[in-house]
């Protein structure tokens, strides 16, 4: 028995796609040309799958802040937050986040993934019950497991199902924690937060919203789905990431709970990892400033998203996402989805190929994420490339893109 | 099996039917992932269907320990009694 035998099935599935001509898990951007363009396989490619919602990765102010921080503080901290890894800039970033999110306190983690792990494992223990949306991100599943809590899933975006389960679990566990996301990463849909908040209040539970895809994207000030839906007061804990709209690496959790900061000494994912490098801390502080000072970024993002959304629907694609910066095109099966993804890449457009088990309900998706930095020409070009793929699919007769969508 | 057990067995089998290859017969010893086409994602869907059918919650902490149909029946019974 070889130690890797357990992966035989996955590995076979991977070999099959690689033999078909390209590796969707091995795309290499050889050169970054702009926030929306990169050189892939020697070709100038429009990037429509980077979650770089505001295009801030190459923003001059953010870049200058990062460079200055490296000159001043060095490339890394070589320490954890509880030892030598807390610099003044870490504290300042946490204050910035708390202020931006309108919360009493915030904790910074080296990645968004770790922020979710740390938050779930830090908040819930073996005597608690976590109720999580069934379509939650892997980091939430993993964090739930780490917590040792009893973990129950409720149907995606279904407050009534949550309510039923909370009623059944009424006498179980000491504390109940409900976990939802502000925007779901595959289909761009939002949770009905007011309804969830009502259920939460009635059952005396806590509510954690992971705003990874919604900070900088939703709400008048960019605070996310809770702001956009006017229910911030009902949200007890907010998790977020620096690796999407904020253009760096890291994550945070914020809360008004007066005892929140005890996690600095009780959350292992916060305590036993090196602190964020100075360049990330500095560029994220600059990115929060940019978001505050330039709401036009968000307006441009939504205008671009709307244009691509309408464009792909007009082409007859089965767009199964919400009208959001995440636009998902459903294809009938894995083979067709891979073929279409590959054709787009050859045509100079990079999107994400999203397949089960990473997708809800086993759908095969071409997942696009739009940026404020896309030009109208780029969006039009992406639509033209998709149109070519649609023509080829329809001509081949094996798949009617149009039929898949509207029967 | 008591009549209740028998009913439970039949109800769960009705839900599992969709995952049953033609040559496999459902018995308490049937392996869920080995003999039925239930991968990790299908298992999650299946659990939710069973939760709805019996009005129970099956924590996902328990799911990875389920090997065969008998394990599943035991969990359903245990969670139904705990209600």
Tell me briefly what this model is.
With 407 residues, chain A is an alpha/beta fold. Chain A is built from 15 helices and 15 strands.
Q: Which pair of chains has the greatest number of interface residues, and how are they split between the two chains?
A: A-B, 14 and 14 residues
Structural class of chain B: mainly alpha
Radius of gyration of chain B, rounded?
12 Å
Give the CATH topology of the largest domain in chain A: Aspartate Aminotransferase, domain 2
Form type of chain A:
globular
Look at the structure and name the CATH superfamily of chain B. ACP-like
Summed up, the helix count of chain B is: 4
Beta-strand content bin of chain A: 15-25%
Query: What is the H level of CATH, i.e. the homologous superfamily of the largest domain in chain A?
Result: Type I PLP-dependent aspartate aminotransferase-like (Major domain)
Secondary structure layout plus pairing:
The complex is a heterodimer of chains A (407) and B (83).
Chain A: H1 8-19, E1 29-32, E2 37-40, E3 43-47, H2 60-73, H3 88-101, E4 105-109, H4 112-123, E5 129-133, H5 138-147, E6 150-154, H6 159-168, E7 176-181, H7 193-203, E8 206-210, H8 225-228, E9 237-241, E10 251-255, H9 263-266, H10 268-271, H11 278-293, H12 296-314, E11 318-319, E12 326-331, H13 334-346, E13 349-350, E14 352-354, E15 364-369, H14 376-396, H15 401-406
Parallel strand pairs in A: 3-13, 5-6, 5-7, 7-8, 8-9
Antiparallel strand pairs in A: 1-2, 2-3, 4-10, 9-10, 11-12, 12-15, 14-15
Chain B: H1 3-16, H2 40-54, H3 60-63, H4 69-81
Task: Give a written overview of the molecule.
Chain A has 15 helices and 15 strands. Chain A has helices at 8-19, 60-73, 88-101, 112-123, 138-147, 159-168, 193-203, 225-228, 263-266, 268-271, 278-293, 296-314, 334-346, 376-396, 401-406, and strands at 29-32, 37-40, 43-47, 105-109, 129-133, 150-154, 176-181, 206-210, 237-241, 251-255, 318-319, 326-331, 349-350, 352-354, 364-369. The radius of gyration of chain A is 22 Å and the shape is globular. Mean pLDDT of chain A is 95; it is low at 402-407. Chain B is mainly alpha-helical and 83 residues long. Chain B has a single domain, classed as Non-ribosomal Peptide Synthetase Peptidyl Carrier Protein, Chain A (Orthogonal Bundle), CATH 1.10.1200. Chain B is 55% helix and 0% strand. The mean pLDDT of chain B is 89.
């Amino acid at each position: 028995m070889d130690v890797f035998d357990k992966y035989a099935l996955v590995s076979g599935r991977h070999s099959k796609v690689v033999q078909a001509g390209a590796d969707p898990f091995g795309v290499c951007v050889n050169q970054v040309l702009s926030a929306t363009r990169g050189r892939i396989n020697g070709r100038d490619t429009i990037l429509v799958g980077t979650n770089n919602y505001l295009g801030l990765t190459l923003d001059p102010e953010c870049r200058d802040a990062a460079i200055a921080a490296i000159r001043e503080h060095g490339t890394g901290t070589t320490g954890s937050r509880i030892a030598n890894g807390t610099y003044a800039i870490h504290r300042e970033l946490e204050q910035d986040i708390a202020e931006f999110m309108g919360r009493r306190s915030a904790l910074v983690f080296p990645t968004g993934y770790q922020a979710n792990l740390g938050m779930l494992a830090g908040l819930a223990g073996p005597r608690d019950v976590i109720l999580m949306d069934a379509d939650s991100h892997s980091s939430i599943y993993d964090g739930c497991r780490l917590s040792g809590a009893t973990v129950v899933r409720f149907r995606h975006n279904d407050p009534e199902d949550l309510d039923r389960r909370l009623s059944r679990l009424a006498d179980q566990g000491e504390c109940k924690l409900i976990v939802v996301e502000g925007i779901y990463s595959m289909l761009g849909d939002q949770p009905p937060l007011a309804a969830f908040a009502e259920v939460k209040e009635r059952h005396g539970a806590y509510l954690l919203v992971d705003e990874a895809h919604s900070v900088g994207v939703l709400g008048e000030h960019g605070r996310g789905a809770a702001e956009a839906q006017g229910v911030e007061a009902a949200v007890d804990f907010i998790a977020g990431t620096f690796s999407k709209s904020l253009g760096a690496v890291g994550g945070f959790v914020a809360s008004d709970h007066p005892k929140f900061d005890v996690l600095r000494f009780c959350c292992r994912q916060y305590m036993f990892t090196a602190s964020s490098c100075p360049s990330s801390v500095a560029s994220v502080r600059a990115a929060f400033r940019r978001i505050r000072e330039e709401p036009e970024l968000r307006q441009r993002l939504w205008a671009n998203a709307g244009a691509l959304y309408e464009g792909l629907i007009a082409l007859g694609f089965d767009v199964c996402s919400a009208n959001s910066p995440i636009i998902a095109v459903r294809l009938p099966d894995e083979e067709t989805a891979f073929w279409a993804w590959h054709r787009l890449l050859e045509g100079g457009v990079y999107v994400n190929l999203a397949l089960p088990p990473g997708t809800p309900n086993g759908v095969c998706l071409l997942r696009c994420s739009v940026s404020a930095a896309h030009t109208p020409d780029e969006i039009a070009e992406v639509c033209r490339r998709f149109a070519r793929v649609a023509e080829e699919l329809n001509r081949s007769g094996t798949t009617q893109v149009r039929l898949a969508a509207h029967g | 099996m008591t009549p209740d057990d028998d009913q439970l067995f039949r109800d769960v089998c009705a839900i599992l039917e969709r995952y049953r290859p033609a040559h496999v017969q459902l018995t308490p010893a049937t392996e869920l992932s080995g003999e039925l086409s239930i991968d990790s994602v299908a298992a999650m869907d299946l659990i939710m269907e069973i939760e709805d059918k019996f009005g129970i919650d099956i924590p996902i902490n328990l799911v990875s320990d389920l090997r065969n149909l008998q394990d599943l029946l035991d969990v359903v019974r245990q969670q139904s009694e705990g209600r």
